[in-house]
Write a structure and sequence with these properties.
The protein is α+β, with helices and mostly antiparallel strands. It contains three helices and three strands.
Length: 119
């Protein structure tokens, strides 16, 4: 019976509780669905995914809503405050029973921040 906003708020609360411990700016992997064991696996897959929006529009929009809510927390780089607490939120999902909606959040620090440049 969780709403989309409930999911966004839960992910943001988990990040708020983590605070500066994961060395922001961070990357957030979110697993939704399956059973909880698979959901946790999905959150790790999401964390390690290339930082591109989800191909399905509904999940892409949800990733952006989560990112906006997380960045509005004001934790900022290294926990010193600011508008950039997270760089990306990636979601991976699986089918699940209608009576339950497993949700797992995996927070990555500098290990998951990467970029490439061709010269």
């Amino acid at each position: 019976s969780a709403t989309e906003q409930d999911i966004v708020d839960t992910v943001a609360e988990i990040v708020r509780e983590a605070g500066a411990n994961p060395c922001p700016p961070m990357v957030i992997g979110v697993g939704i669905g399956g059973d909880f064991e698979y959901c946790a696996y999905l959150s790790k897959l999401a964390l390690c995914r290339e930082n591109v929006r989800h191909p399905e529009q509904m999940y892409s929009r949800l990733e952006q809503k989560m990112l906006d809510k997380i960045n509005s927390l004001g934790i900022g780089p290294q926990g010193f405050g600011g508008n950039t607490t997270a760089l990306y939120v990636n979601i991976e999902k699986a089918a699940t029973h209608i009576a339950g909606l497993p949700l797992a959040v995996n927070i990555g620090c500098h290990v998951t921040r990467h970029a490439t440049k061709e010269i």
